[in-house]
Amino acid sequence: MNKSKAMPYLLIFFLLLLKVSAFRILIFDTKSVWHIAFVEFPVWALLLALVLLIFKKRIWLSAWIYSFLVSGIFFAVTLYSRYYTTIPSYYDLQQATQSSTVGTTILLLIHPTDFLFFLDVVLLALIARKWKEAPRAPKLKYAALGLAVVSAATTIYAIQQPIIDVSYFAKENGYAQSQLVQMYQQANETAHASSTSLSAKELEALKGNKYVPANNHDTFGLAKDRHLFMIQVESMQNFVVGRSLNGQEITPNINALLEESAYFSNVFQQIGAGTTSDAEWITNTGLYTEGMVPIVNKLNGSPVPSLAQTLKGHGYGSATYHADDIEFWNRDVLYPVLGFDEIFSNEQIPEIKQVGYGPADEVLMDFALDELPRQLDAYERMYSNIIMMTSHTPFVLPEDMQYLDLPMEYEGTHVGHYLQSIRYADEQVGAFIKKLKEQGLFDESLIVIFGDHSGIHGSPLSYEDDVLLKDFLGHSYSMKERYTIPLLFTGGGLFEAVEMSRLGGQVDIMPTALALLGIEHEKPLMGHNLFQYEKNLLGMRYYLPGGSFIQSEQLYKAPGAKLPDMLLDIKTMEKRKKNSETKKHTRDVQKILEYGDALLKPYIQD
Question: Where would I find the Sulfatase N-terminal domain in this sequence (predicted)?
Fold first, then answer.
């Protein structure tokens, strides 16, 4: 093939090389020529070569379509990683349509330079006008063969490596290879199933505690025979509790409620890709999620030993409330396997005062209260699971739902919108508690209030937002502010202004609530009673790199796609030097997560 015949093909592959290089630099902050030329590029180039060979009569059109699709993938990965600070899998990108507010969120994430990924698409169109139709390239099949050998070698090598963290794995082995390996492992999931088994004593020992049977806990039965209300507040982070802005409390109702609550101020989210639905899973099962795949999308329909199932054996009826489409995040599968007697979605909850995902929280909460009289006639005791969602990103509320008079510098900012939405959510929590008291139910109930996950994170935060957060907090926004959620246990006569700073996770919510109710759960739980145990060791997948851990004294963030590993003091968030304990906790948390995976196996699809 002479030089003139080769030129169009050289240009097509050169443009792809530039795009792949830009992708590697942007996503992984690496300029490694080796990883670009011999790991990442060959797979994309092989796919391009195959496309050109298959559609050899339409070289420019096929090259243009392929380039456009790759640009779209790189564009989507960039936005996703900017928001979640983790690298998405092929599965995550398929879930982009799960959010009804995705359009607004995407607009917050886009940088004008992101569209440079499509520059080669434009250039290809211009080049095609010069060459019209590129000549056939008889030697292209030999190039494809060479690319296939290199791609196969790197992929086979990648398959032999453990995926502890997907982002770091993709950085070291190539993004395309990481997707292929995940597909391979998912297809052979049974063969990779964990056989780890831990006794309750062994599990507590890994966390640093001496095991005590549940019925011997000091708080066991403190709220015996009470109704249970679990109130999950969308995007509520712990740093807003007790704080004010220009003399205005962000959470005045929760602040007042603290006087008759036990408040855990050092509880970490543990959700994965399923975000809010993962939080529902964890708090209703006491089990971990898989992390990379929303657990609701893998359930096989088998009944799960859940909070509702256990309470049912003690005379409780159960109901769950979520004012959205029941098929959103497969809740039409989730709620039945959790054993709820009654399920309420937007089909039953009035679709009025629509904000973001659906009816405003005030509509949801009033609906749940209106159902109570009938339920209390039907059941001896009641468990109500209420999922609030008005305070969901992008946090923009109508004026009549804004309770804060924001300073001028907060107006129109992401932080300002967030504080307004949390203030609204707090108002609805306060109204709900007030009505329970008016109906005489507060003294007969255990009410658990908690946040599902962080709301302030990722690219929507501008430099201006960072400055506002620092001013609001009195220090720079840290991982602790991002990942800690408030957790309150309250009810008439139960507690008086108890605040506990011991480490907790979302897996601890269910066992703590059951202990207060004086009920034992027959199946293993990953969490424990927060009133009983002082030490803890938590895993968090997806939002922290694999190999990370949260321990009572320190937080270890394993190396990720861009940043090196770091060890932080859990109280001050100042850096520490790694030591032998760091390796031990890393090994121990891996055992805990593997045990969690083993407990999941009966309930998820292979």
Answer: 228-519
Residue 605: Cβ-neighbour burial (10 angstroms; 0-12, 13-18, 19+): exposed
Contact 425, 233 (CB under 8 A): yes
pTM of the model: 0.81
Domains of the chain, residue spans: 3-191, 220-534
427 marked among binding-site residues? no
DSSP E strands in 168-258: the ranges are 227-233, 244-245, 248-249
| Each residue's pLDDT tens digit, 3-44 | 566 778 888 999 999 999 999 988 888 778 888 989 999 999
- Please write down the HEC assignment for all residues of 164-185: CCHHHHHHHHCHHHHHHHHHHH
> What are the angstrom distances between the C-alpha of 351 and each of 42, 328, 360, 427?
52, 16, 9, 20
Is there a contact between 56 and 136 (Cβ–Cβ < 8 Å)? yes
- Which residue has 């940043």 as its token pair? 563
Q: Is 347 annotated as a binding residue?
A: no
234 labeled part of a ligand binding site:
yes
Give the CATH class of 220-534.
alpha beta
Each residue of 93-141: pLDDT tens digit? 655 545 444 455 666 678 888 888 999 999 988 888 777 666 666 678 8
Candidates 85, 275, 276, 490; catalytic one: 276
Burial 342-375 (b: 16+ CB within 10 A, else e): bbbbbeebeeebebbbbbbbbbbbbbbbebbeeb
**Cα 44 to chain centroid, rounded:** 29
Tokens 């009033």 label which residue?
366
Distances (CA, A) of 472 to 263, 407, 415: 22, 12, 10
Q: 103-117, 362-376, 535-549: which has the minimum mean pLDDT?
A: 103-117
Which tokens hold the place of 523? 């199946």
Active site residue 276: yes
